[in-house]
From TrEMBL, chain A:
Family the UniProt entry places it in: Belongs to the binding-protein-dependent transport system permease family.
Topology in the lipid bilayer: Multi-pass membrane protein
Keyword tags: Membrane, Transmembrane, Transmembrane helix, Transport
Entry protein name: ABC transporter permease
Species: Halomonas aquatica
The keyword Membrane is annotated on this UniProt entry: yes
Any matching Pfam family: BPD_transp_1
UniProtKB/TrEMBL annotation, chain B:
Protein keywords: ATP-binding, Nucleotide-binding, Transport
Protein name: ABC transporter ATP-binding protein
InterPro entries: AAA+_ATPase, ABC_transporter-like_ATP-bd, ABC_transporter-like_CS, CBS_dom_sf, P-loop_NTPase
One Pfam family recorded for the sequence: ABC_tran
GO molecular function (one): ATP binding
Lineage of the species this protein comes from: Bacteria, Pseudomonadati, Pseudomonadota, Gammaproteobacteria, Oceanospirillales
Span of domain ABC transporter: 2-236
Keyword Lipid metabolism among UniProt keywords: no
PROSITE patterns: ABC_TRANSPORTER_1, ABC_TRANSPORTER_2
Length: 242, 314
């Protein structure tokens, strides 16, 4: 496959996403048909591109933190010294995902106040599990003979981690990050309930005001964003993992 | 070169290796043989400190192994294992160059060394250098494993059942190659196996282990002729011992100079083993063989009576 064709799918989705952000007003006829009784059918309190930017930055910050914490914790508990904490960490990560993000928001707001911070915390907790679980699976799944040989050849701990374990586990780790980010793009919408303005705004506002057209616009953009990012990730993974 | 002095290894309450003493001379191929769980692998892995010994001392070249940093010690020793442990994400050439790279050799020297080793192990550079381990057959992968162990030209080579997973034909080829390699390189090799035929074929010094202890050690012929107890005897094949011994002795040792009699029509090389000679006699229904040198010139003759070691010829 040529380089161009490899990137065709994500580029098409990105183009659709941008077109939808900029040209939502052109679809007024369709939305008027969905919501004939409302005075306004195109969400206009903020411009979609700004909302998209905020949405992306919240998800990115949460993702970077989740990667640092998740991959870091998984590496730590697969070292000789951290082995004892392995069950604890995998359980904590599972709990993070069973805890509904809405509940995290409710608990975080009194402590952190309204705005972006509580939603980042909620997304971080929610996104940890796939990353921790996949990093653990990737590292623990390496043929023990490979690690034995690496040690026997005289590689030290850092060399084994950087030159052997991480490269071999990378495809599985990347798959975990992909799942985590894709889920969180959708989950981030609830941030709109605590004053973090993003693509969830039209949805929440649509629900509150009984305007289905707004809900559809927010959902459409979030869906397109999730698909674009997911298809970008699928390009990063080696062919064998797709 | 390698000295184990009253070495013991305990895992919790159980004793894996029990007070063994062993000396491997420079340039010697020492084979540790025994049933599974007898402590032979543990012994090997204590030498490069993949396992730390509990009691006793291990010396390399007169120095305690604990005087070295673990990594430094291991980089001085080649290490080859049954499942090869080649890095699946690296090419053959990069795998072989691992230890030289750890030792920070300059790139050209690593490149030259990798080429040299691939030649030595019969792996063509064009065909194999860029391949990945999953593209290799078992025998090729094990050759790469041995090349990697030899890469930094270590004086000591530790081999843990390196040929254990190969089919019998490939295994024999690699055993031959190891012998040939050893006769050129004169490394000090500690080789672990549970296959007694392999042990007898390769060993200069044979060490039989049982339940964490050394039961007997010595040259293969000594062990065959004077097994210390029933265990060694049964491990050496009991009734088969005669054939195993014959496999270790060359024809040239028992042949008689050419006499006045007509030459027998069946010929055998003087380097062949007595076992091969016996097999040929059985197969061809011949009581006498003509022994020939490398150029196929007759140099002597071997009769069945001589072969089995009867005192005088007819």
């Amino acid at each position: 496959m040529t380089e161009c064709r490899r990137w065709a799918a994500p580029l098409v989705w990105l183009a659709l996403l941008l077109a939808a952000c900029l040209g939502m007003a052109q679809l007024e006829g369709v939305f008027r048909w969905i919501e004939p009784d409302s005075r306004q059918v195109i969400y206009a309190r903020a411009d979609f591109l700004t909302l998209l930017g905020r949405h992306l930055s919240v998800v990115s910050v949460a993702a970077v933190l989740a990667i640092l914490v998740g991959v870091g914790a998984a590496i730590a508990v697969t070292r000789e010294r951290g082995r004892d904490f392995l069950p604890l960490v995998s359980q904590l990560a599972s709990m993070g995902q069973t805890f509904p993000p809405v509940a995290v928001l409710a608990l975080a707001v009194p402590v952190l106040g309204f705005g972006t911070l509580p939603i980042i915390v909620a997304l971080l907790l929610y996104g940890l599990l796939p990353i921790v679980r996949n990093t653990l699976a990737g590292i623990l799944g390496i043929d023990p003979a490979v690690r034995e040989a690496a040690r026997g050849m005289g590689m030290n701990g850092g060399q084994i981690l950087r030159q052997v374990e991480l490269p071999l586990a990378a495809p599985v780790i990347l798959a975990g990050i992909r799942t985590s980010v894709t889920i969180n793009i959708a989950t981030a919408a609830i941030g709109a309930t605590v004053g973090a303005s993003n693509l969830g705004d039209p949805i929440i506002s649509g629900i509150v005001n009984g305007n289905t057209a707004y809900v559809v616009q927010g959902a459409l953009l979030i869906g397109l964003l999730a698909i674009s990012v997911d298809s970008l990730f699928s390009r990063l993974q080696p062919a064998s993992m797709r | 070169m390698i000295d184990l002095i009253h070495v013991t290894k305990r895992f919790g309450a159980s004793t894996a290796v029990d007070d063994i003493s062993l000396n491997v001379a420079r340039g010697e191929l020492c084979v540790l043989v025994g049933t599974s769980g007898c402590g032979k692998s543990t012994t090997l892995r204590m030498i490069n400190r993949l396992i730390e010994h509990s009691e006793g001392e291990i010396h390399i070249d007169g120095q305690q192994i604990r005087a070295f940093r673990e990594e430094t010690l291991r980089r001085r020793m080649g290490y080859a294992i049954q499942s090869t442990g080649l890095f699946p994400h690296w090419t053959v050439a990069r795998n072989i160059g691992l230890v030289p790279r750890l030792l920070k050799w300059p790139a050209e020297r690593i490149q030259a060394r990798v080429e040299e080793l691939m030649g030595l192990l019969g792996l063509s550079m064009e065909e194999f250098a860029g391949k990945y381990p999953r593209q290799l057959s078992g025998g090729q992968a094990q050759r790469v494993g041995v090349a990697r162990a030899l890469a930094a030209d270590p004086e000591i080579l530790l081999m843990d059942e390196p040929f254990g997973a190969l089919d019998p034909l490939t295994r024999e080829t690699l055993q031959e190659e190891l012998r040939a390699l050893q006769s050129r390189l004169h490394k000090t090799i500690v080789f672990v196996t549970h296959d007694m035929d392999e042990a007898l074929r390769l060993a200069d010094h044979l060490v039989v282990m049982h339940q964490g202890r050394i039961v007997q050690q010595g040259s293969p012929l000594t062990l065959l002729r004077e097994p210390a107890d029933g265990f060694v005897e049964s491990l050496l094949g009991g009734e088969d011992r005669g054939l195993k011994e014959a496999a270790l002795l060359p024809v040239s040792q028992r042949m008689l100079p050419l006499g006045s009699r007509l030459l027998a029509c069946e010929r055998i090389g003087q380097r062949a083993s007595l076992r091969e000679a016996l097999s040929m006699m059985l197969w061809r229904h011949a009581e006498r063989l003509t022994v020939v040198d490398d150029n196929d010139q007759p140099v002597g003759e071997l009769s069945l009576r001589r072969l089995v070691g009867a005192r005088s010829d007819d």
